[in-house]
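Task 17 of the worksheet. Students: predict the tertiary structure of the chain below and write it out as structure tokens. Keep your answer in the requested format; marks are given for formatting as well as content.
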Amino acid sequence: MAEPSPADITGSTPPLTGPQADDGRLIQRAGRGDHSAMATLAARYEALLLGLAQGLMRGREDLARDVLQDVWIRVLKSGSAFSGQSSAKTWLYRVTINRCHDVRAKMDRQTPAESVRPPAERTFDGEQSTAVTRAVETLKPDQRMLVILCYHSGMSHSQAADILGVPIGTIKSRLNTALNDLRAALSSRTTTHQQGADDARAARRPA
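Model answer:
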């Protein structure tokens, strides 16, 4: 009989409650095949990890869900060895980020980045807006990561520093640079859009 997939487990098993539901212990138990532990982790973290993955995968929900499936598989295979040196949330975010990096690197080798961008993309406030998402994509990878972690995922500077393994001062400096670059990119796009609109109106005027 085939083993159940992560989706089967998280969708059919009731979550745990009480002291047995400590996040670190849940990861260890899930790695030993405890379906209730896996279901509890999914109930707590699936939406957060999916949002993070979608931000890193250029708004592609299909790719983000594939990443999340791989994350849960990693928990099933390796969770029993979770040491607790970092928090469960930090560990899950690192696994998700690393998997997104792997998938994006493979995509970028196979096809130009622009060709994998969907026609309508989500901004970090949930509204459809291509401009902000594309402006974020112009940032350097480390800057883009920080914007997604701190503004899309709502993490504090200290949490982001823990996940990325860099000093908090570096986080603040990179984030400040990222926001300045993002403002410049948005300003440039707004100016270009306005110029295009003005040119279009001028072309429609009668001679």
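Marker's comment: The radius of gyration is 20 Å. The chain has two domains: 9-118, 121-207.
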